[in-house]
Amino acid sequence: MNIAPYFDHTLLRFDATSLDFVKLAEEAIKFGFATVCVPPSIVQNLRDTYSESDLKICSVVGFPCGYTNTKTKIVETKELIAAGVNELDFVVNFSHLHSGRYDLVEVELDSLIKICRENSIISKVIIESGSLNNIQLEKIIEILNKFRPDYLKTSTGMLVMDYVVNTEEILKIRKKLDTEIKIKASGGIRNLHQVNELIKAGAQRLGTSSAVSIIQNQFKMEQL
User: Fold this and answer.
1) Distance, CA of 39 to chain centre
2) Domain of 59, in residue numbers
3) pTM for this predicted structure
4) pLDDT tens, 188-216?
5) 2, 75, 88, 102: which sits with the fewest CB atoms below 10 Å from its CB?
6) Which of the following is catalytic: 56, 124, 153, 182?
7) Catalytic-role residue among 56, 73, 182, 184
8) Which of 56, 89, 124, 150 is catalytic?
9) Which pLDDT score, from 0 to 100, does residue 224 have?
10) What is the per-residue pLDDT across 24-51, written as a single tens digit (0 to 9) for each?
């Protein structure tokens, strides 16, 4: 199975350089990854260099903590769309979510998802599932079923120490999530076994900084 199209080839390290992002883009084109996922400040530079037909660009809004206000997230969203982004990963306001202010979560996500839909941008909502109890998880899934982003994304990969997305979690989410909403598994994905199991469980996109090593490992195994 060709797993390359499942990957958002991700580089969100604070110390990454402009050369690192060029390398990321070239790897994505070479291996056929779905997108590169990069910080907001990098999007325009990449789009000035690579056409949309060559490279799909994903970026993040409210990353990583999600607690910027809704107006700020709306401005960030519109600026990224103008810069040439194809997909956006929105971080839920975790303070609102953990406080049970689901009304505020709804208002924000409704606005952001509508902007994406109106501009033909793929929307993904990061829920940081490793931080949620069962009630919170069910509630955010209920909200996503109502407002219908393109994807639910499990994690930023930065906030919950030692979090690793697992198949049980994906199966649990898939059971509750509307079938038309896809799942992006993210958080601690490092090897081919994880990738295969997550795809079997129902993940349709994978966020990882290890995509190249995983693909290379798959190639080596196929040659044995």
Assistant:
1) 12
2) 4-223
3) 0.96
4) 999 999 999 999 999 999 999 999 999 99
5) 2
6) 153
7) 184
8) 89
9) 63
10) 999 999 999 999 999 999 999 999 999 9
- Which residue type occupies 71? K
Asked if 89 is an active-site residue, the reply is yes
Query: Does residue 184 carry a catalytic annotation?
Result: yes
* pLDDT tens per residue across span 116-150: 999 999 999 999 999 999 999 999 999 999 999 99
Is 153 an active-site residue? yes
Question: Which structure tokens are listed for 127?
Answer: 């829920």
**Distances from the Cα of 89 to the Cα of 19, 36, 175, 183, 186, angstroms:** 23, 12, 22, 12, 11
Query: Domain with 219 in it: what CATH number?
Result: 3.20.20.70
